[in-house]
Every structure is written in C-alpha cells, then in structure tokens.
Design goal:
Strand content: 5-15%
Strand order of the largest sheet: 2-1-3-15-6
Radius of gyration: 32 Å
Largest sheet: 5 strands, mixed
Number of helices: 20
C-alpha cells in the first residue's frame, strides 16, 4: 500500500508539470504566424523536452523507491522469526516438566538454523486420538500434526475430511532432504500426484510377533521353548506355565481396541505359524478390507476364514485363563501393561530391533517370537507420519522444521531420546543409553519409529552400533506389494464407513479379547450387520478404484 501511494503522488506531480508546459507552449504559438502554421515553436520543443526529462526522472525515482521498499520488506520478512505449533503423539504420558527442557533444546536448533520457534504439545495415544480431531474441527491454528494407526487420527481419516494441505510445492522448495530420501515412497501419501503428507521412514522388515518378558522365561526355564516356538500350541503351553507360576496375566491387549491375537493387517489363523499371512489393506485406514493377491479382489477382512479361526483360538485362551480379562475395556495397552506388571506377553506388528525397543519401553528384557513376515505396502508409510493442516498459518516454516527430521542429527535424536547428557548419553560404540545409574524413570524417552527417518536416528544400546546399516539393508531386500502406491479414497462411501464403524466398534474389542462365548454366532452377526450398514457398497467402490489403478499401471 505504501509503494502504491508513492507512485500515485509522483504520477500526479508529473501530470501537473506537463499541464503547465502545455499552457506555455500555446501562448507562444499564438504570437507568430509561422508558429501557428506549424503548431510548434522552438520554446514548445524545449518545454516538451524538459517535460519528457522530468517524466523520466520521476519514473526512475518511483522505481528506485519501490525497489528500496521491496528490499526493505523482504529484509524485514527474513529477519522476523516464524512461530509454528506442532502436536505429536507419544506412547505414554510425558510430564510437562520433563518435556519442557526438550522443547527448549529443539527450539535452540530451529531458531539457529531456521529462525523458527516451535510450540510442541506431546499427547499420549488416548488423548491424541480424542483431542486432535476436535482441535482440527474447531479450526485451531496447528502447523504440524502426526497421522497414526488409530482410525480417528489416521492419514485416511484426515484426508477424507480434507484436513491435510497439499504440500507438494513446499516440499520442492523447503523439504529437499525429505524428497531425496523418500523418493517414490511419497506415493503412499499422495493423491492425483500431489503429496499430502510425509510418512516416517520405517524399518520395512515388518512382521507380526509375540513379545514375552525375558526375565520370566529365564526364571521358569522357558527361554529355549519360546525361541523355538513354531505354533500357537507351543505358545499356549508357555502361557499356561507362566500363569500357573506367577501372578501375571498371560497375553494382554496390544492396542486401544482390545486386540489380543488380532493384529491387523495380519490373518493369523490357528495352529502352525505357517498358516499365518500378511494382507494388503490398500491404504484403508480402518483396515476393514484387504486385496486378495490371488484374484485382485477387495474383500471383507472380518469375513475371512482365518479371522474366524483366530477368534475361536482367542476364546479358547480366554477360557483357559491365558488372557487379561479386562483387555476389551482397558484404557491402557501394550508396553504400559507389561511395564506395570499386568501381563507377560503381547502379539503385535514389530520390526528389526524390536527386542531392544520393547526392553526400553517396558523396563524388562524381551524375547521376540516371530510368526510371519509382510511386504512393503502403502500403509507402511501411512502408519506414522506428519502432515500440515489446511488451517496452518505458516506451511513454509512447518516443512522447514519437518525437513530437520531427515537432515539434522541433533534434532532427530533430541525429539526421540531427549537432551544428550541429561536424558541419554552416547556410548563409545556410538549407541544411545540412559545415563549411568538411571533406568530412565523421570527422563524424556520415546520410540525411534515415531518421528521422521528412523534409519538416521542414533540407535539405542542392545542391538549393536551397526543396526541402522542392517536395517537399511533389510529395507533394500524387502519385496514390495503389487499394490504399493495405491490408496483408496473413502470419500464416496463416507456415510457407509461411519455406519460400518459403529458395527465394528460394537463387536471387534470383544472378539479380539475373547469375551464372546459363541464366537461363530457373533462373527456371523457382525458380518450381517456390516452388510446392512453398507459394507458391500464400500467393497464395490474400492474395487472400482483398484481396478482403475491396476489398469493404469
């Protein structure tokens, strides 16, 4: 506005000057016949030349003024510190007094390198799932949020509600390190060749396993039996001995939905582990469907025969007292229940280095019993990651900060392990550990798969200093799902999804925890009610999208 006003004043002055010049020329032209005939006098020519010179000088002055003001504005903009807000999820509550010094350390990095201050709020899973959707719906000014495996805060959920900004151009300009490392993996969080989020770089050697407390196994002489387990019959025998000789529950729920032996996207079946399989849920954040690779058909996950088999087995374990009785309704789950000595083991999706992760999370030595492997799927990069909400005030600064999770070692380590020298120390072999004499109580500590590029974060002690190299090699060796890059758009069937979700929420926790006595009847009722709620509409829509995607490949 200031530049426009200045230009207008200068233009007015020029006009006045020209008007005065024209008046003088007319007076002189009337004094001589020759002048009258030609319409021009010598003095008029001089006046016109003077006016032209004045106009040029005025224009030059205006341009110089505008350029100076533009430069000044740009300098002011560069000097002004940007402020953004970010909400991140952690697996267990972090006291504000613990996180405050971590936020300060992170801001020292962002202020120094980016001239950006970040107001960070840490939320445990339960609060994140309940509060973040409300914050977005109310239009609260957020600049960075995480998408998670939980339906209410999943990538698909945010996308369906049009809550994530198209960040393609911002990545091109401010996220060069993200682009260089993620490459084609960004297809997992894209739609119509536009990027709407950045999935964390995980260890893609994904599998489903049962984690058991190693100290209990050692005390009862069951370590070898666990290491050599090949079937759920073997697991059953171990659980019986543990529950008979300790006060611990056997299996606990590994998620907030009561799941004990139903870790999606796997179908475990029953009996030998060789019957278990991984399935591609084609980007369905709710995991209600999967694509059968045998015929490329989209199918109801809960209508699979192997789902029914696992539900029956879960009920059997429940009857035998091998499952935590409150699993279906417990507010806590996973590592927290193990840490609080509620249970002995849990089944869930894991990755290379999991034993170290679980040991750090629970405070007890861990033994991992692998069941089956998976493939690289779209969902691997939609499980945990970051997006910029559409109401962000400063997406440029948000992407600049996010880029640090792929480029700045100190920033990555601080957000994950806390402040070096206070919350953790670097050992001689290059791995991270709690300070001598500390077990981590009262210190900041999260998990390395939550934030950014896991493969670049300093590894925690226990798996060796070369774990990142081994994980990177495992990633390179992993087979990719034939559906990688395809992600369903559920918007056309949003109403049906809401109706189906109500049905799933009604039955899944109980089936997953084994509380239903009539398993077959309950599964049949669940599927019938899902169909009545519009499940077939969902399958048909997803099938149409998958067919179109396959045809375009």
């Amino acid at each position: 506005m200031k530049r426009k006003t200045t230009a207008l004043i200068l233009a007015a002055l020029m006009s006045m000057s020209l008007i005065a010049g024209c008046g003088a020329s007319e007076e002189k032209a009337a004094e001589t016949p020759a002048a009258a005939e030609s319409g021009v006098t010598e003095e008029a020519e001089v006046t016109e030349e003077t006016a032209t010179t004045e106009e040029a000088e005025a224009t030059e002055e205006a341009e110089a003024t505008e350029e100076a003001e533009t430069t000044e504005a740009e300098d002011d903009e560069e000097d002004e510190e940007a402020e953004i807000s970010a909400v991140v999820m952690c697996l267990s509550p972090i006291d504000e007094g613990v996180s405050e010094h971590v936020e300060k350390a992170l801001n020292e990095i962002t202020q120094s390198k980016l001239n950006v201050t970040v107001d960070i709020t840490w939320m445990d899973a339960a609060n994140y799932m309940s509060q973040v959707p409300m914050m977005l719906q109310s239009g609260e000014a957020l600049d960075l949020i995480m998408f998670t495996p939980m339906p209410a805060t999943s990538y698909q959920s945010f996308m369906n509600q049009r809550q994530l900004m198209d960040i393609t151009d911002y990545l091109d300009e401010y996220g060069q390190d993200i682009m260089a490392q993620m490459k084609d993996y960004l297809k997992a969080t894209s739609r119509d060749d536009r990027v709407y989020g950045v999935g964390n770089m995980p260890v893609l050697d994904a599998k489903v396993a049962i984690d058991m407390r190693g100290d209990v196994l050692e005390e009862l002489g069951l370590t070898d039996a666990a290491r050599n387990a090949k079937s759920f019959d073997d697991i059953e025998e171990i659980l019986k001995k543990v529950t008979e000789n300790t006060d611990l529950n056997g299996l606990i729920n590994s998620d907030a939905e009561g799941g004990v032996l139903l870790p999606q996207p796997f179908l475990l079946g029953e009996g030998d582990f060789s019957n278990a399989e991984w399935v591609d849920t084609v980007g369905d954040g709710y995991q209600y469907v999967y694509a059968d690779m045998a015929d490329n058909k989209v199918k109801n996950y809960f209508a699979s025969e192997k789902f029914l088999q696992t539900a029956r087995m879960t009920r059997k374990f429940y009857d035998e007292g091998l499952i935590y009785k409150d699993a279906a309704t417990a507010n806590e789950y996973g590592a927290i229940l193990i840490q609080n000595e509620v249970g002995f083991a849990m089944a869930h999706q894991v990755e290379m280095g999991n034993e170290t992760i679980q040991s750090a999370a629970t405070g007890f030595p861990d033994v991992e019993v692998d069941i089956t492997d998976g493939l690289i799927a779209t969902r691997a990069f939609q499980k945990f990651g970051f997006g910029v909400p559409v109401m962000s005030d400063d997406p440029e600064a948000a992407i600049k900060v996010l880029n640090l999770l792929w480029s700045d070692q100190e920033f990555m380590d601080t957000l994950t392990w806390g402040v070096e020298g206070t919350d953790w120390v670097k050992k001689d072999d290059g791995t991270a550990a709690f300070p001598e004499g500390s077990n981590g109580q009262g210190l900041y500590h999260t998990s390395d798969f939550l934030y950014g590029n896991k493969l670049a974060i300093t590894p925690w002690e226990g798996d060796g200093a070369d774990i990142r190299e081994r994980q990177a090699a495992a990633n390179e060796a992993m087979e990719m799902s034939p559906y990688f890059g395809f992600s369903v758009d559920s918007a056309p069937v949003d109403s049906q999804i809401v109706a189906v979700k109500n049905v799933v929420d009604k039955y899944k926790p109980g089936l997953g925890a084994g509380i239903y006595e009539d398993v077959d009847g309950t599964v049949e009722a669940m599927i019938s009610e899902m169909d009545a709620a519009g499940m077939q509409d969902i399958i048909n829509e997803y099938q149409k999208q998958l067919d179109a995607w396959l045809a375009a490949q």
